[in-house]
Amino acid sequence: MFERFKDFMTNQKLKWLGRFVYYLLILLLLFFMYGFNDASAGSYIYNDF
Questions:
Q1: pLDDT over 80 (residue 49)
Q2: Cα separations (Å) of 37 from 11, 20, 44?
Q3: I need a labelling partner for 28 at 20 to 30 A (CA). Which of 10, 18, 19, 34 fits?
Q4: Would you give the distance in Å from CA 9 to the centre of its chain?
C-alpha cells in the first residue's frame, strides 16, 4: 500500500499537473483580487505625482 502511494507521489506527470493547477489558481486569484478594470476605472499609482 505504501509503495503504491510512493509511486503515485513520484509520478512526474502528476507533479507537473499539480504545479500547473497551483499556479493557475494563483493567477486566477490575482485576477479576481484586482479585477478586470480598464485604465480609466480606478486610480493609478502615479496620478498623484
A1: no
A2: 40, 26, 11
A3: 10
A4: 21
One-letter amino acid for residue 47 of the chain: N
Segment 10-42, tens digit of pLDDT: 888 888 998 999 999 999 998 888 776 655 555
> What is the DSSP code (8-state) at residue 47?
T
First to last CA, the chain: 63
- With beta carbons less than 8 A apart as the criterion, state whether 8 and 14 touch: yes
The string of DSSP codes covering 1-49 is -HHHHHHHHT-HHHHHHHHHHHHHHHHHHHHHHH-S--TTTS--TTTT-
